[in-house]
Amino acid sequence: MYAAAGINTANDMDETKRALAGPRGVNVEEAFTINASPEELYVFWRNFELLPRFMNHLVEVRQLDLLRSHWVAKAPAGRTVEWDAEIINEIPGELIAWRTLPGSDVVSAGSVSFKCAPGGRGTEVRVRLQYEPPAGKVGATIAWLLGHDPAYTIHEDLRRFKQLIECGEIPTTKGQPRGRS
Known about the structure:
Elements lengths: L9 H11 L5 E9 L3 H9 L11 E6 L4 E7 L5 E12 L3 E6 L6 E10 L6 E10 L3 H10 L4 H18 L14
Antiparallel strand pairs: 1-7, 2-3, 3-4, 4-5, 5-6, 6-7
């Protein structure tokens, strides 16, 4: 697919591997079981412009072409970060893997996989993410102290994804009056 599109990611991938090599950066892995088929979940997730519906930290995702997309996310202290990403591996109905392109505010690579859960209980959706936050480990520590834990963020993203797929909406108490006596 990539060769047909005239894209060679070999050298760029080396840059991403160097930037994320060893214990550098933040590594997150989270999984949820969702009552839907792998194909249905893959199709929804592959439409990246829908991801801000359940990923609260995302402001916007724009699909640039078949493999590349532009992302804008909230960052600590009211800032935003932007990056371009490209798909580096894709198996329809099973896997989407990506990495950021050179010049992005965040260096990252990750994947989301969709695997039938045991006993016909839906699909296990597993997200693996590695990234070098702006300001490195110090920035990651400050973000954590300010309540921006990447593992918790991904966990909550997957929880909202499950709610959206299984219920058609994300239940919230936002805007509801508090019970007071």
